[in-house]
Amino acid sequence: MTANVGTIDRLFRIVLGVILIALPVISEFAIFDSIAATVISVIAGIIMIGTAALRFCPIYRIFGLRTCRT
């Protein structure tokens, strides 16, 4: 597994992941009254944080993208 996620991309993914996990808990948006929306948001947040931690994004690999310098 070769790193394909750069530093700025990692920071963006971490912030977005934390927001996606926290949003259903602290917000009062009507969409999060649905369990499905809450689960999807939390899973997407976990995936974002996971790809940032591993510095590897499978979708980037499929499309041949890299945001890191090495």
Explain this structure to me?
By secondary structure, this protein is mostly helical. The protein is built from 3 helices and no strands. Helix 1 (7-26) runs antiparallel to helix 2 (35-54). The radius of gyration is 14 Å and the shape is elongated.
How much of the sequence lies in strands comes to: under 5%
**Radius of gyration in whole Å, from Cα?**
14 Å
Gap between N and C termini: 13 Å
User: What's the average pLDDT?
Assistant: 95
Main sheet properties:
none
Tally of individual domains: 1
Helical residue percent? 55-70%
Secondary-structure element order, as H and E? Answer: HHH
Keywords: Membrane, Transmembrane, Transmembrane helix
InterPro entries: YgaP-like_TM
Domain Inner membrane protein YgaP-like transmembrane: 1-69
Transmembrane segments: 12-32, 38-57
Question: Which tags fit this structure?
Answer:
single chain, 70 residues, mainly alpha, 3 helices
